[in-house]
Amino acid sequence: MSKQVSVRENKQYVVFQIADQEFGVDIHKVSIIEKFMNITRVPSTPDYIKGVVNLRGEIIPVMDLRTKFELPFMEADDDTRIIMLKFNEITLGVIVDSVAEVVSFAEEEMESVTSITNDRTLDYVVGIGKVDNRLITVLNIEKLITELTEREQGV
Q1: Which domain holds residue 68?
Q2: Left, alpha or beta for 102 (phi > 0: left; psi -120 to 50: alpha)?
Q3: Does residue 3 sit within a domain?
Q4: Which residues on adjacent β-strands are paired with residue 103?
Q5: Is residue 70 helix, strand or coil?
Q6: Pick the residue with more confidence: 154 or 30?
Q7: pLDDT tens digits for 29-53?
Q8: Is the Cα torsion angle 21, 26, 29, 35 positive or negative in sign?
Q9: Are strands 90-96 and 58-64 parallel, antiparallel or unpaired?
Q10: Overall domain count for the chain
């Protein structure tokens, strides 16, 4: 008898840090990770939209997750990165304090947060992943990008 190993159930996540918290995003939604670069401010955008960058001829909006999640401001440093996320042909850059690693865990290792509170900021959270003795907040990138595009279209 052969043992069947289900590899499909494990998903990989890019883990990054904002303040003292670790967050993760589905690796399939990450197109590239860039060092912090010059961002051009766009008037009349929300505070958490820092502006746009020109990446290889493509103009990409950049969101500061610290501001979006109401965390204290921090100057960009050598560890600061912009993670380019792609969903439905839309690219969005998110500023993070640092990028740590890629981890993988199964869906059963992720806890739902809906039972904890019905806070609106949790709309951006898929769940909490447990890796070793760490808790990684897995973000709902689709929700972040959809909200941004709806705001741009005036929906």
Answers
A1: 10-152
A2: beta
A3: no
A4: 13
A5: coil
A6: 30
A7: 999 999 999 999 999 988 999 999 9
A8: positive
A9: parallel
A10: 1
Q: Residue 16: inside a domain, yes or no? A: yes
Give the total residue count for the chain.
Answer: 155
**Cβ(125)–Cβ(69) under 8 Å?**
no
Residues 6+ apart with CB under 8 A from 105: 10, 11, 13, 129, 130, 131
> Token digits for 31?
């197109």
Is residue 120 in some structural domain? yes
Tell me the two tokens of residue 53.
């960058």
**For 142-155, b where at least 16 C-beta lie within 10 A, e where not — what string?**
bebbeebeeeeeee
Q: Which two tokens stand for residue 15?
A: 């883990």
Indicate which CATH number applies to the domain containing 73: 2.40.50.180
pTM across the whole model: 0.84
Query: Using CA atoms, how far apart are residues 87 and 146, in angstroms rounded to an integer?
Result: 9
- 50, part of any domain: yes
Q: Pick from 11, 145, 10, 32: which is nearest to 99 by CA?
A: 32
Closest among 85, 100, 101 to 143, alpha carbons compared: 85
